[in-house]
Design brief:
Blueprint (H helix, E strand, L loop, with lengths): L1 E6 L6 H6 L7 E5 L2 E10 L4 E9 L1 H6 L24 H10 L1 H4 L14 E11 L3 H9 L5 E8 L9 E13 L1 H16 L9 H10 L9 H8 L4 H14 L4 H8 L7 H9 L3 H15 L4 E5 L5 H6 L7 E6 L2 H11 L6 H6 E5 L14 E5 L10 H12 L3 E7 L26 H15 L1 E8 L10 E8 L2
Parallel strand pairs: 8-9, 8-11, 9-10, 11-12
Antiparallel strand pairs: 1-4, 1-5, 2-3, 3-4, 5-7, 6-7, 12-14, 13-14
Helix pairs in contact: 3-6, 6-8, 7-9, 8-9
EC number: 2.1.1.386
Protein name: Small RNA 2'-O-methyltransferase
Keywords: Magnesium, Metal-binding, Methyltransferase, RNA-binding, RNA-mediated gene silencing, S-adenosyl-L-methionine, Transferase
Length: 475
């Protein structure tokens, strides 16, 4: 089995430092199932390729196998695809030979560890038990371009049909250590099999390698189930731990801990209640939807569905989708809307997505308008670049509405101490010039026009309590 890693980063030979491997040597390590070799078939300042080649001993693999009953020790253990196709054996070899690189450690080039690099991963024989559709569903939300060619069962006998194996190239720009964890987890998931017994320690391994991307992956539950060989108790344990740590609401974490801690947004609601600000925000966004005659709307970060409830009865909106990273929020939104009691026409209009705004998701595309109501301030500022690409470059709706607090107006809230934000989960709150500069930068970069409005009664010096940007795609 073979994995090739290519970069055109300048100088491309930095790949050797990140992998802890000298390009002029062949690095070999004996495994219980064979030998893993790392070598560099291509080395230059412009382009460098490292290859991980694993020679598998099928007999040694069976002899080392644990957790297998005697009745299972049949011929299929000796005659299988393990020596030839990427599988959990390749992931195990990655952990052993590229462990330092996967862990984000580089003594000689520490400044490069977090730098996004142009990377191409080539896997000439990758089992995809679920086909190309599953392959894309796993990698595209993480920002990969997927080039896949399904291999025939036998090139000399086309009538035998296609095999479950693909020749795959994965292209991305990402820190190397993060991309390696993607491969480490997802290769066995695609194979839907592992060569070793899966116990509780495998949950810790999955969570360690899946940080920080797994908790918000749209195929999270499928990944967890397959990685843990469909052991339901282990999968439930892993998902419970991911739900608490995936960046969901404070309410999710409190519920999981069994505590009665107040929700983080109660503070914000108390501050804004006297201004009827939440209602005015929703009305302002709904007015934009109506003025732009948007027939399809996706609410990105829909929370408990307050905007969805406002938009659902609008006759001009024929397709409405609520998306959130939190399962709990989606559940509360369903309950808030009482869809079971709504006319069938309204039920058919609304759909739900569990996903993340910092990973590319093809399901976000095809809408007239996308809304982000009080969402961006919940992300760390360095991650806003990923959100911008997901929304403006990949989803690319005809219009986007973004609202966020105006931090200057906080001085008007007597119950809010100086320097404190309105919500404990806010990562930042911007002034009007800061928000307008950010919004204009996104508009210029992705081909949108943008206009700004204040929401709520404006102070002559501090402005309105909420600021809104309306982006419209330019022809």
């Amino acid at each position: 089995m073979l994995l090739a890693i290519t970069t055109t980063h300048r100088p491309a030979t930095d790949l050797g430092y990140l992998l802890h491997k000298h390009p002029e040597r062949v690095h070999s390590r004996r495994q219980s199932y064979g030998v893993a070799h790392v070598f560099f078939p291509e080395v230059s300042e412009e382009r460098c390729t490292a290859a991980l080649f694993v020679e598998v001993d099928p007999v040694g693999l069976v002899r080392d196998r644990k957790g297998t009953s005697a009745s299972a020790a049949l011929m299929d253990q000796y005659v299988n695809d393990r020596p030839y196709a990427a599988s959990s054996l390749l992931s195990a070899a990655m952990a052993d030979t590229l462990g330092s690189a996967m862990g984000g450690r580089s003594a000689d080039r520490p400044e490069l560890v977090g730098v996004p690099l142009p990377l191409v991963f080539s896997l000439p024989t990758l089992p995809c038990r679920g086909g190309e559709r599953l392959l894309r569903a796993l990698f595209e939300p993480l920002g990969y371009e997927v080039d896949a060619r399904q291999l025939p069962l036998d090139e000399r006998s086309p009538s035998w049909g296609a095999s479950p194996y693909f020749s795959v190239q994965l292209r991305t720009t990402a820190p190397l250590h993060l991309a390696l964890t993607h491969l480490y987890v997802l290769i066995p998931v695609l194979d839907n099999s592992k060569h070793y017994w899966v116990g509780e320690d495998e949950v810790d391994k999955l969570l360690a390698r899946g940080e920080p991307w797994l908790g918000t992956h749209p195929q999270r539950d499928l990944i967890v189930r397959r990685y843990l060989k469909h052991r339901r108790s282990l999968a439930d344990l892993a998902i419970d731990r991911l739900v608490v740590s995936d960046g969901s609401t404070a309410e999710d974490a409190a519920t999981a801990d069994g505590t009665d801690a107040p929700r983080g947004d109660e503070q914000e609601h108390r501050l804004e209640r006297s201004l009827s600000l939440n209602e005015r925000r929703l009305e302002a966004v709904a007015a934009v939807v109506e003025s732009l005659q948007a027939s399809s709307v996706i609410d990105l970060g829909c929370g408990e569905g307050r905007l969805l409830k406002q938009l659902l009865p609008m006759k001009g909106v024929v397709r409405l989708t609520g998306m959130d990273v939190s399962h709990r929020s989606l559940q509360l939104a369903r309950e808030r809307l009482n869809l079971d009691r709504q006319p069938q026409m309204l039920q058919d209009k609304l759909s739900w997505l569990h996903s993340s705004l910092v990973y590319r998701d093809a399901r976000f595309a095809g809408y007239d308008l996308a809304t982000l109501v009080e969402v961006i301030e919940h992300l760390d500022e360095p991650r806003l670049g990923m959100l911008s690409r997901v929304v403006f470059e990949f989803a690319r709706p005809k219009a986007v509405v973004v609202t966020t607090p105006n931090v200057d107006y906080n001085a008007r809230f007597p119950a809010l101490p100086a320097g404190r934000m309105r919500h404990p989960d806010h990562r930042f709150e911007w002034t009007r010039p800061q928000f307008q500069a950010w919004a204009q930068q996104q508009a210029d970069r992705f081909g949108y026009a943008v206009r700004f409005e204040g929401i709520g009664d404006a102070d002559a010096h501090l402005g309105a309590p909420t600021q809104m940007a309306v982006f419209t795609l330019q022809p």
